[in-house]
Design a protein that fits this description.
By secondary structure, the protein is mainly α. The chain has helices spanning 5-18, 23-35, 39-47, 56-72, 78-88, 91-103, 109-121, 128-138, 146-156, 161-168. It is built from ten helices and no strands.
Length: 180
Amino acid sequence: LKADPANLTTFLELVARTGIKSSSITVSLKDIAIFSGKDNEALRALDMLMPYELSNAENQQVTERLKAAIDSSEKADSPYYFSQLLRFSNSTQREQLALDIFNATDANNSMQSIIMDSIQAGTLDRSPALKDALFNIAKQEQSELQQQAIYTLLYRFDLSQDEYNDISRGQNLNIENIRF
């Protein structure tokens, strides 16, 4: 695979199309994900790997690479890198990543939406800090993500009557009215 980049591309396409998995294919995918000089090849390899297939050291290398890719990528590409970073991070890291994105001064709506999707899917654990961050978004009438934040709060968090009243003030919050 190292001698010819075309072989690497062919290998990735073959594995993606056939879905064949073996220990040697998994090792090759991990090597590509960690050592490939091209982010797009590494991402394709990560798409075919599950987080449990990586050792702690490999997982650390992957998450560091993804963090670097987010920092150096175009704004349009960073949400995909971020979704992979969430996928390969442990639960404590995921919560901290989510809070960092919610608290960033230059908020990336796509990344915030990915976080809410992860909470809704159950891959990101609910916490009081995330609930507070979602409340902040839900209260911002000019936010593009207000409805998604409200939906996430309603369906994934335990809300008191006061909390419900707080986010529903001035809105007709029937379940049918919340659309994406």
